[in-house]
Design brief:
By secondary structure, the protein is of the alpha/beta class. It has helices at 6-16, 20-28, 43-55, 70-83, 137-156, 201-210, 240-245, 249-256, 272-277, 294-301, 330-333, 343-351, 355-359, 375-381, 390-395, 411-429, 462-465, 467-482; strands at residues 31-36, 60-63, 97-101, 110-115, 118-122, 168-171, 190-197, 215-222, 261-265, 286-289, 307-314, 317-323, 438-442, 451-453. Strand 10 (286-289), helix 10 and strand 11 (307-314) form a beta-alpha-beta unit. Bound molecules: zinc ion (ZN).
């Protein structure tokens, strides 16, 4: 099985100006050392997530035996090897970076400490760290994602003009603050009733964290696709074996959320309202989405949940849009294009693929996709077999396709987008009120420089013009659920 590193290499190329094959050689030759203080609460959890993420990227991981019981070390190495067989380095390698899930310092190391819902990261050895709160799974996951981001900067020597260096950084994705003690702590257990729509790079990270938090209740999982080898390098769930077995993405998420009462749907989000109004599937009052097209976002909004938290990535940007009743909706945030055909429509027109197929940019082009196309269309597409459809846009010179539809994702960016979404869900569950509905930051610059603001809606949007109708639909669906 050959891992498809195109996303991370494209990003590496963009931030360094290097040549992709040279960058791949460079990154593949690198080893990152991981030290874990098993006594530090959350450290082992964070390390598990970190080695899994590193195994999805070129290069290898060395797990420092110091500070770890042999069984915990074996566990960490197995996690990495399950994702990718050759992800572990032997102890004689030299390291490009050392990550320490510990308070104690060694020269040049990056320390990452889960703390409450969030994390602290320090790359300056003179900074002394103290864990203020008992960390939960979100804090552990956030620490791991921030550590992976710092390693990426070091491994590629990304210039400081493109990537901020943090002598010290702390961030809580619930309070959206550097103060890790601001948001209330989690109770021992919390009951939830949510839908996760889209279980790709972002949604798999959401599922993996929700599954480890002290939550229970009902979860509706929606994704129409199966896990494939090209997803290994960008997702937070799924291993080589899952790719070989072509597991449903909903099944991978269900496996990570074993403590929940799970309903799975492998149909497009567009068919959900019909299923709900037909009484086949219960209406979810809270939805977390991780979607890659405007069309799917609109379809998800038309469920009219009480709370819709949409996480998105674009290159190194991560973003969150939050839609609630009588406030701006996702259709306000992602308006339908009025300036001509959408990116997917344009690609469909240029290639002969259906619009629906062209919109699934993450999926590689298959022989099946070429069925029914003309000889000319086939001739254009056949050379792109096996490559993600979103790359076709560039290859065909459709340069106006940037906009909202096609965004490459690297795991530590998708994870941060997902964790912002989980943080918002916890803020809601903990009754920690926020009036912002838009959050965005560049992972290479860090969450401290995030834009966090209440964004206005569009007065001409359906959500404003049909407020009453939407309220009725919502009530009706809530009633159906009670039966
Ligand atoms: Zn709207």
């Amino acid at each position: 099985l050959v891992t498809d590193y195109s996303r991370v290499l494209r990003l590496a190329e963009e931030v360094t100006g290097g040549e992709p094959s040279e960058l791949e050689r460079h990154l593949s030759a690198q080893t990152v050392s991981v030290f874990v203080d098993a006594e530090l609460p959350g450290a082992l959890d964070a390390a598990r997530r970190f080695v899994s993420t590193r195994a999805r990227m070129p290069g290898r991981v060395f797990v420092d035996p110091e500070g770890l019981r042999a069984t915990d070390r074996d566990d960490l190495m197995n996690i990495a090897r399950t994702v990718r067989r050759d992800a572990i380095a032997d102890e004689h390698d030299s390291f490009v970076a050392e990550v320490r899930f510990a308070l104690t310092v060694t020269p040049g190391a990056i320390r990452a400490v889960p703390d409450g819902h969030g994390a602290q990261v320090a790359s300056n050895e003179s900074v002394s760290l103290e864990q203020q709160r008992s960390p939960n799974a979100l804090g552990a996951a956030f620490a791991a994602a921030l550590a992976a981001t710092e390693v990426f900067k070091v491994a590629l020597e990304v210039p400081e003009t493109r990537a901020a260096r943090h002598p010290y950084l702390s961030f809580c994705p619930v309070a959206l603050s550097s103060d890790l003690t601001l948001a209330p702590e989690l109770p021992h257990s919390l009951e939830i009733d949510v839908a996760l729509i889209g279980l790709g790079a972002v949604g798999s990270a959401t599922a993996s964290v929700l599954g480890q938090l002290p939550l229970s209740g009902r979860v509706l999982l929606v994704d129409r696709e199966r896990f494939a080898p090209e997803n290994l390098a960008t997702y937070s769930l799924g291993c080589e074996e899952d790719a070989a077995n072509r597991c449903w993405k909903v099944d991978l998420a269900a496996r990570a959320m074993a403590g929940f009462d799970v309903t799975r749907m492998t149909e497009p989000a567009e068919s959900l309202p019909r299923r709900i109004d037909g009484g086949e599937i219960e209406w979810p009052s809270i939805v977390l989405s991780g979607l890659d097209s405007v069309e799917a976002r609109h379809a998800t909004q038309r469920l009219w949940p009480d709370l819709l938290i949409d996480s998105a990535t674009g290159d190194t940007m991560v973003g969150l849009h939050v839609a609630e009743p009588d406030r701006p909706c996702l259709i306000c945030f992602f308006p339908p294009r009025t300036d001509g055909p959408s990116a997917a429509e344009r690609l469909a027109e240029a290639t002969g693929l259906s619009v629906g197929r062209a919109a699934r940019g993450d999926n590689p082009l298959t022989e099946e996709d070429l069925d029914g196309l003309s000889e000319n269309q086939r001739a254009i597409l056949v050379q792109h077999l096996g490559k993600p459809v979103c790359g076709l846009a560039d290859a065909l010179g459709l340069t106006t396709m940037e906009a909202n539809d096609y965004r490459p994702a690297i795991p530590f960016a998708s994870q941060q987008a997902a964790y912002l979404g989980v943080g918002r869900l916890l803020a809601h569950l903990l009754d920690f009120r926020r009036d912002d509905n838009f959050i965005q930051y560049d992972v290479l610059r860090g969450p401290a420089r995030a834009t966090i603001e209440p964004r206005p809606g569009d007065a001409a949007c359906y959500c404003n013009e049909r407020q009453d109708t939407i309220g009725q639909v919502r009530d009706l669906r809530r009633e159906l659920r009670k039966r």
